[in-house]
Amino acid sequence: MVVKVKFHSLFKLNLKSAGINYYIDQPISIEELIKKLDNDFEGYFSEKLLDTGQIKPGSIILINGKNVLHIDKLDTLIEDGDNVTLFPPSAGG
Fold first, then answer.
1. Is the pLDDT at 70 greater than 90, yes or no?
2. Domain-embedded: residue 93
């Protein structure tokens, strides 16, 4: 089973990558996906996306175009064929 993870904005620039594919045996949660990403990118994603075990305000995590904040947050399950899109927190005005 394949899950596609796409990086946008500063993630794409800082990591010099548009994303990564993961092969999974069973559905995993967003939290588990972030742990996988941390293993491959030296803790980068927890630092940027999470604050005390919660999604940082301004961070956007989408599964197939739907924001995980409107599903089950970090417990949202990712399944075969899903596309996960990650945007870092942003600010401005």
1. yes
2. no
